[in-house]
Amino acid sequence: MKTVAELNEIREKSLGSIALRKGKEALASVSTEYKRNVLVCGGTGCTSSHSKQIVEALHREIEKNGLQNEVKVVMTGCFGLCALGPIMIVYPEGSFYSMVKAEDIPEIVTEHFVNGRVVTRLLYQETVGAAGEIKSLNETDFYRKQIRVALRNCGVIDPEDINEYIARDGYQALAKCLTEYTPDEVIKIVSDSGLRGRGGGGFPTGRKWALCAPNKAPQKYVVCNADEGDPGAFMDRSVLEGDPHCVIEAMAIAGYAVGATKGFVYVRAEYPIAVHRLQIAIDQAREVGILGKNLFGTGFDFDVEIRLGAGAFVCGEETALMTSIEGNRGEPRPRPPFPAVKGLYESPTVENNVETFANVPQIILRGAEWFASMGTEKSKGTKVFALGGKIKHTGLVEIPMGTTLREIVEEIGGGIPNGKKFKAAQTGGPSGGCIPASLIDTEVDYDNLIAMGCMMGSGGLIVMDEDTCMVDMAKFFLEFTVDESCGKCTPCRVGIKRLLEILEKITRGEGTLEDIDRLEELCGYIKANSLCGLGQTAPNPVLSTLKFFRDEYIAHVVDKKCPAGVCKNLLTYVIDKDKCIGCGKCARNCPADTIHKTEYTAPGHKLPSYEIDPSKCVKCGACMDGCKFGAISKK
Amino acid sequence: MQKKISSYPFNGTAEQEQKLDAVIAANKHDKSRLMAVMQEAQEIYGYLPVEVQRRIADGMDVPLEKVFGVSTFYAQFSLSPKGKNNISVCLGTACYVKGSGALFDKISEKLGIGADECTPDGKFSLTACRCIGACGLAPVLTVNEEVYGRLKPEDIDGILAKYSE
Ligand SMILES: Cc1cc2nc3c(=O)[nH]c(=O)nc-3n(C[C@H](O)[C@H](O)[C@H](O)COP(=O)(O)O)c2cc1C
Ligand code: SF4
Ligand code: SF4
Ligand code: FES
Q1: What's the A283 CA to ligand 4 centre distance in angstroms?
Q2: How far A486 CA lies from chain B's nearest CA (Å)?
Q3: Cis ω on the peptide bond leading into residue A337 (within 30° of 0)?
Q4: Residues with Cβ < 8 Å from A370, sequence gap 6 or more?
Q5: What is the pTM of this model?
Q6: How many other CB atoms sit within 10 Å of the CB of residue A67?
């Protein structure tokens, strides 16, 4: 790329390719090549529910009907509503087809594309009004409250085509920085916006850049953390899959601001689609001249390389990540020195999370004030959450900081399925804690979460209902951290293991009240003495469940009961003798041969009922699963 | 994390060796590319037997201890061969809350093997993984590259049958 004028030229030329997706106004000013654009989600969620077959079927049917020159099929990144995948949107109408099957495609093509009649039956039903009228997606509960900044292009553009990114003002922010601002001015804009790190800690991004900028060295680095270790969070993956160029652009901006000319993106190997698209994006950017030497003729050089992780949670920690890029076991290093002074290859390094970067180009283009106008006093802008667990609309949402948990769960998330009761939401993954139902009106931002012993983390938000046992949940997270501790320091390596053993004892029904005290004491010790964030935060799930759900712990140790009915050793299966019709299916299913006929026949039944001898029961649940009359329950 | 190290005899082919040598030659100049080489080696052999690790150490000119240190540190590197069909059950948070633990137990019971083990006939191996990013479809598992989502324990028999002929 020689000049900004060339960038604008590509932009002008490409506007037509995306105009259909932007509504009537955009269409008035440019002419489009196609009559229709069909956008099919090609994110991991929808590809797993076979969206590739949908695309193949579309191509086949479109060709059969001779519509190749009228209808363009684009595979995009994630739309967010993964629960209803595979998802497909048809423009200019904006018709939102959900849970599409390859068998539906011939009908959609002939009815909708040929005859111009939307197939209402196959639309996402929330977009169909009472009178059969079709509403826009932004009127549905799931999308209404969302504001898309980091996810702005996800589900809108073809991530494998740099021209579509440029048509959406892509690389304009970089051009503006290089040609209109000094590095210090760039840092000031980012600082003024109030952007804080989205990777977990919430450190102010502008300040991080400002700490690195003055350090002199022959080579400095920008690193993008795409390790996304919190199991249950997938926003970074979605950004890389849906809009890889925005991360590249932001990294170059960061490079300019701090004086670095080389960037690395560290991606987990479990994300093959993201890696593939990011590589395509890097190659295209190099080809157009947006990466490489002398960008926009300003003398600034910048290039990006991908490094793959190999499945180690601790490598998400910034110093461990750098040791891993250097080709070593990913063990954390003590800080200070901080990466801003001595990071990758002992050189000054700025390290940010994917979502943090994804906000940057928009901040540059629309200004710090615009960004700071969203959110709460100390948490500006929006945050992407991955809604998961016992919630209707599992998927990805981007909402202003300060949205209440109630809005997230009840409105956007559509509530809890199967008429169950909301019990808690877990945020921050293995380093975080839970927000109980009693605090559902909390405004979710960095500081409110920390105040209740929780943490924003990367934005995984797992909803739990009455069937989730909180002790089991704490145990689950500790199993994770025990597995993932790198073993470098003793408080973490040994301490977390001890915590887990105590929790195992409690869930087996062998715990005592002293064990609960020991848990608390040990937690404090591990937090205070571990070297890195993994160990320092590993006790959080225990502390937080103890704080809000102590009665559940007590029920396990004193009453030897698991109120949620999860911990096997504490369950008893019983047959309601008045509901049992005496068919004997449970007795045949029981592997332990511990169900026998009784002498009692319930009024109205012909055969005597059965009963379980609890002494031999192995709690497999086979009896209950098989009983058609709902006569068996666990307590 | 403790890793299972297999005692299966190594039977790499000359063709695999050639491929590995090419990968090493392409990355030799930069020792920090060790992990990338090991990742490609695992693609070629399906796992990282000690013979392969030794060849990498020699080729990249790093001590064998270092290669071993890396292969035992990262979960992705497997020191035992996988079955013809590798089943990987997601035990990430979203999947666990939706009952993927029960899926794992059911498969383990049906196949008679535990985590990171292979059935005696070499047909199936079982692993637990963490979040493949398809949380929207939780609970999920993968067989080789294929993803199965929104599962119930009842679905397991059908999936196993599909791969057992
Ligand atoms: C154990 C551990 C795991 C982490 N995992 C991640 C991760 O997967 N992704 C991420 O962006 N940050 C992760 N972090 C936070 C990083 O250390 C770092 O603070 C962050 O990437 C900085 O970027 P930000 O300021 O843009 O958030 C982790 C931290 C710890 C202690
Ligand atoms: S706290 Fe845990 S993960 Fe962090 S350095 Fe110590 S042992 Fe390793
Ligand atoms: S839970 Fe299993 S072992 Fe116990 S009674 Fe029912 S079928 Fe038998
Ligand atoms: S937790 Fe299973 S795919 Fe994310």
Answers
A1: 30
A2: 8
A3: yes
A4: A363
A5: 0.91
A6: 18
* Contact yes or no for B78/B119 (Cβ under 8 A): no
> What number of other Cβ atoms are within 10 A of residue A441's Cβ?
9
Q: Where in the sequence is the domain holding B114, given as residue range(s)?
A: 85-163
Does B94 lie in the same domain as B152?
Answer: yes
Query: Which pLDDT band, with edges at 50, 70 and 90, does A306 fall under?
Result: very high
Half-sphere exposure of A36 (CA within 13 A, CB side): 24
Q: Tens digits of per-residue pLDDT, B122-156? A: 899 999 988 888 888 899 999 988 889 999 888 99
Number of other CB atoms surrounding residue A144 within 10 Å: 11
Q: Return the sign of the alpha-carbon dihedral for residues B141, B143, B145, B151.
A: negative
| DSSP string computed for A586-597 | HHHH-TT--EEE
- How high is the ipTM of this complex? 0.85
Cα angle, residue B27 at apex, residues A341 and B15 outer, rounded to 5°:
150
Q: What is the arithmetic mean of pLDDT over A165-187?
A: 97
Cβ pair A234:B1 closer than 8 A = no
Residues of B in contact with A484 (CB under 8 A): 1
Instruction: State the pLDDT at residue A28.
Output: 67
Cis bond before residue A400 (omega within 30° of 0): no
- Nearest Cα residue to A237 out of B114, B21, B134: B134
Going by C-alpha positions, the residue among A349, A351, A346 that lies closest to residue A315 is: A351
Please work out whether the CB of residue A589 comes within 6 Å of at least one atom of ligand 3.
yes
Q: Where are the strands (E) in A439-519, listed by range?
A: 460-465
- Closest ligand to A319 CA? 1
User: How far is it, in rounded angstroms, from Cα A505 to Cα A520?
Assistant: 15
Mutate to test the pocket of ligand 4, among B103, B140, B151 (most ligand atoms within 8 A of CB): B140
The residues, ordered by sequence, that sit 6+ positions from A39 with a Cβ below 8 Å of its Cβ are: A21, A74, A75, A76, A88, A89, A90, A91, A155, A156
Residues making up chain B, counted from first to last: 165
Interface size, chain A vs chain B, as Cβ–Cβ contacts under 8 Å: 134
Q: Cβ–Cβ of A271/B133 closer than 8 Å?
A: yes
pLDDT digits over A375-407, tens only? 999 999 999 999 999 999 999 999 999 999 999
Euclidean distance between CA atoms B112 and B128, whole angstroms? 15
- Residue B93 and residue A82: Cβ atoms within 8 Å? no
Report the length, in residues, of chain A: 635
Q: Indicate if the pLDDT at residue A24 is higher than 70.
A: no
Distance, CA of A425 to CA of A448 (rounded, Å): 14
Q: Are A233 and A460 in contact (CB under 8 A)?
A: yes
Q: What dotted CATH number matches A470-559?
A: 1.20.1440.230
* A3-17, A165-179, A323-337 — most confident range: A165-179
- Is residue B1 one of the residues assigned to a domain? no
Q: Which of the following CATH numbers is that of domain A572-634: 3.30.420.150, 3.30.360.10, 3.30.1360.20, 3.30.70.3270?
A: 3.30.70.3270
